[in-house]
Task: structure prediction
Amino acid sequence: MKKITFAFFLITQITFSQILNVESLRKVTDTSGWSGAINLNLELKRNTNDFINLGSNIHVQYKMNKHLILFKNDVSFEKIEGENFDNSLVSHLRYNYRFHDKIAWEAFTQGQYNKINLINFRGLLGTGPRFKLSNSENYKFYLGTLVMYEYEEVDDGITPIQRDIRGSSYLSFSLYPTDKVSFVSTTYYQPNLSAFSDYRISSQSSFLITVFKNFALQINYVFTYDAFPAVGIPKSQYNFNTGFTYSFD
Result:
């Protein structure tokens, strides 16, 4: 089943998350083949300054029997009075092999750039098991316990290049109390395995209410905490947005 989704967000209080929520990318489908989502946005504004914001995100998923491949690419470009202010890019590729009804093995790679967080480049390569903790189709719980290699360059003039081995554990649940209401939440914990005081936490929750067929109200909230961010960057950040989503098969 092919599925394309366009989302139009109305209100945004934003700092860009440093941890990509992969659970939000998974499309639930019982059929093999391609599915995906596309979001494009453009904002032009003039008050005391000229403001331009361009953004796009593309998600493609391919499922075949026990195999699942996910690809995600997010780009954001912001310019104020001709000066680049807040640009970011995340590309993520993940492979799942389900060898048991409740256990799958995951492997992934990710590249990231984030100007506002002073991340010139962050590269990840990881693998580990993913466990399904429930049988209900209306209430789904998952646990992942992965290990990843991280290479990071930050632009604060002080922090050296980081080459670390991190854990990446997550707990995710999806609740579907009715056919018109859904709630999805995922929390990640990513410690440096050689220095557990160096860790990151990210929690993302999404609430969706179907207004009528293929048209829904969606509310998202993301909170991130980094014990050792680049110099001058706050340890905790959050992102809140709400808007409408139109989808079709």
In short: The chain has a mean pLDDT of 83.
